[in-house]
Specification:
Length: 391
DNA sequence: TCTGGGGTCCTAGGACCC
DNA sequence: TCTGGGGTCCTAGGACCC
């Protein structure tokens, strides 16, 4: 059996949100810049036409770093880090609030530019995609250069491209030469270029699994590959153990999937201060109603109804609970804010509140395409009767 | 210095049916 | 009365990803 040729690409925009912002504010190029926080940290236009930017040290709140420029990363500031912590590491770094509508616009542009050349792409979030190069006869490196040029022409931004035999390796490859790189990873490169890397570099090995591997004395992908599969199965269970072993050998058969039906929609919010169930009842209800209205609007905008409604709470100690209710199959799927709120309210009744609340979320699952079931007032009345008989 | 918001997938246990 | 096995659906929690 011969190894498949490298014809799957992973394209990853470089420091995406931060790069978009730098294009808006070129005076910050080269500076440590962090995207995060709310609109109150937006730059202020000065009378002389210059802009005044917020500094990280002026931040007070519970936000996290969404993206940081490479200069900020050099100071130890990375995505996911609390902004308060980041401020201790880089107090003078510039802080810009996230503008997700703007990033979505850039995202659409870079994806359209790629699609115009290589239509078989799989969305992996706002700033990365997998591309199936198989239908294209062109040499892969030339193709990758064309894609990068097209992305730059459409956005003015750079990206990094990895090309390998499958998605798993393409993803690792795109990270090997960042920013603005192209990396072709052939089957014979596995030992030399992939095996020395930390297991965390594999998409699917997170902090928990990496810590367990380290306790087993496994600190590289090569060591993982050399570990007998039955040892991994004993530690991680049959499914994940087998997957770990295969991943370390560079094996991955997942196809590039251009479209998938969504499974759920959700909205959640973290409060500026932890709220008390009774003392802050009015504030909580307001947030709760708003979350229900937003998730209902999402459903309707995308053309879905749901059969499962759930809530999520995070308490002051950061521990989270979820509750969910699925409508009986005799009832029509729902998409209106009122009914979602009613069912989510039933979920809330089943939670005991022993601490203040940090986060509240509402989720809709069990999705059906809207229009596949007809909405009937009668049906909704049945649902109300059902939900009111729940206590 | 405490940790956002939007998702997916997996596991395990219980209910319920045949 | 105390013994099954399989299949499917639902719930809750957790790991992981961008």
């Amino acid at each position: 059996m011969t190894a498949p040729p490298p014809r799957i690409a992973h394209l990853d925009m470089d420091a995406f949100f931060a790069s978009v912002e730098l294009q808006q504010y070129p005076e910050l190029i080269g500076q440590p810049v962090v995207v995060g926080g709310d609109a109150s940290f937006a730059p202020e236009l000065q009378p002389d036409g210059s802009r005044r930017f917020a500094r990280l040290k002026s931040y007070g709140g519970r936000g996290v770093v969404t993206t940081s420029t490479y200069a900020a990363r050099a100071l130890g500031v990375f995505s996911g880090m609390g902004l308060m912590k980041a401020a201790t590491l880089a107090p003078e770094a510039f802080l810009l609030p996230g503008r997700h509508d703007l990033y979505r616009d850039y995202s659409r542009r870079f994806k359209a530019a790629v699609r115009a050349i290589t239509p078989r792409i799989e969305d992996r979030g706002i700033d990365e995609i997998y591309i199936d190069l198989n239908p294209h006869a062109e040499e892969v490196l030339l193709l990758a250069q064309r894609l990068k040029a097209a992305v730059f022409a459409a956005t003015g931004l750079t990206c990094s491209v990895g090309i390998a035999a499958n998605k798993l390796l393409a993803k690792i490859a795109s990270d090997l030469d960042k920013p603005d790189g192209i990396t072709l990873l052939s089957a014979e490169d596995l030992e030399r270029r992939v095996w020395p890397l930390a297991p965390r570099k594999v998409n699917g090995i997170g902090p928990k699994a990496a810590a367990r591997l380290e306790r087993m004395g496994i600190t590289t992908i090569g060591q993982l590959a050399a570990t007998p599969v039955h040892d991994l199965i004993a530690q991680f269970g049959a499914r994940y153990g087998l997957w770990l072993s295969r991943a370390a050998q560079g094996q991955d058969e997942r196809p590039v999937t251009p479209f998938r039906e969504p499974k759920s929609f959700s909205r959640e919010t973290t409060f500026a201060q932890d709220l008390h169930v009774r003392q802050d009842r009015t504030t909580l209800s307001r947030h709760f109603n708003e979350l229900c209205a937003r998730v209902a609007a999402d459903l309707q905008r995308k053309g879905y109804c749901c059969r499962t409604v759930g809530v999520k709470l995070r308490f002051a100690d950061f521990h989270a609970v979820t509750r969910a209710l699925t409508l009986p199959s005799s009832h029509a799927a729902i998409a209106d804010a009122d009914t979602i709120r009613r069912v989510a309210g039933e979920c809330l009744k089943r939670i005991s509140f022993t601490q203040r609340i940090r986060l509240l979320g509402v989720r809709c699952g069990g999705l059906e395409k809207a229009g596949t079931t007809v909405f009937k007032t009668l049906r909704q009345r049945d649902l109300f009767a059902w939900s009111e008989s729940m206590d």
